[in-house]
Amino acid sequence: MAGGTDIMVLWNAGEQNDRGILDLSALKSWGRVRETDTHIRVGALTTMSQLQQNDAVRRRFPLLTQASATVGGLQIQNRATLAGNIANASPAGDSFPPLAVYDAQVNLVSAAGRRTLPLLEVFAGVKKTNLQPGELIAAIELPIPKRPARQMFRKVGTRAAQAISKTVAAGLLWMRRDGSVREMRFALGSMAPTVRRLHHVEDYVQGRKLTARTVEAACAMLENDVSPIDDLRSTREYRMQVSKNLLRSFLQPSR
């Protein structure tokens, strides 16, 4: 247990009463953020509030800062940790699209040793991960990217605050001097059992100028990368249309 904001709800409902809980709060070094010339290492017990307050995270990874401010209310943000958000493996994890476009690496530790997984390889499905028994998330490493020409984080929910997302998106865009796309990264959450990078869309726009035709073709291609789910919060059709609108607004040529 890190912050316990999810597991304590289940425990209170009687769903965890037969399980032993290991409290990690005494591992003070796991609650630190360290910056080097090449990356930032976020300790597993770093809370959402600490992410918002950390100068290095705000400067280097603003989309993660924005996402951390949408996780529940202030009380939740003061307890919930980034590693706990990942280990919980909800399809609606607000931090996942920013972590995906930042190419986050998850450091794992166990009695058997250490290993590192790319964020997208951690998730195995709804509330499921590829962590081995006894394995803990020790930290999340974020390689420092070059400053993008455009960046975006958007969460769409039923309410303006304390809502579980219907869709959540993050994007980074780098441009060449001739106006063509050098690189784009775009990820969507709450659209599938796990967070998805739009690799077909990313490959399509690379090297192209973002004309109206290119943008519309990219939006149509979104369906090649993700097939939205129907659930209690929203419909497949709504999620797809809103996600296309978010992608369109991100890529839209300046007027």
Would you mind describing this structure in some detail?
There is one protein chain. The protein contains 11 helices and 11 strands. It has 255 residues and is an alpha+beta fold. It folds into 2 domains: 7-143, Uridine Diphospho-n-acetylenolpyruvylglucosamine Reductase, domain 3 (2-Layer Sandwich); 150-251, 2-Layer Sandwich (Enolase-like, domain 1), CATH 3.30.390. The strands form 3 sheets. A 5-stranded antiparallel beta sheet has the order 1-2-7-3-4. It has a 4-stranded antiparallel beta sheet with strand order 8-9-10-11, sandwiched between helices. Strands 5-6 form a two-stranded antiparallel ribbon. A hairpin with a 5-residue loop joins strand 9 and strand 10 (181-189). Helix 9 (199-205) packs antiparallel against helix 10 and helix 10 (212-221) packs antiparallel against helix 11. The chain starts with 6 loop residues before the first helix and ends with a helix. The mean pLDDT is 90.
Give a short summary of the structure.
With 255 residues, the protein is α+β, with helices and mostly antiparallel strands. The chain has 11 helices and 11 strands.
CATH fold-type name of the largest domain? Uridine Diphospho-n-acetylenolpyruvylglucosamine Reductase, domain 3
Would you state the CATH class of the largest domain? Alpha Beta
The CATH architecture of the largest domain can be given as 2-Layer Sandwich
Radius of gyration: 18 Å
Distance between the termini: 49 Å
User: Uncertain segments of ≥5 residues (pLDDT<50)?
Assistant: none
What would you call the structural class? alpha+beta
Find the count of extended strands (DSSP E, 2+ residues). 11
Helix content: 25-40%
Q: Strand-residue fraction?
A: 15-25%
- So how many helices? 11
Quaternary status of these chains?
single chain
Mean pLDDT: 90
The profile of the biggest β sheet is: 5 strands, antiparallel
Helices and strands, in N-to-C order? HEEHHHHHHEEHEEEEEEEHHH
Overall, the morphology is: globular
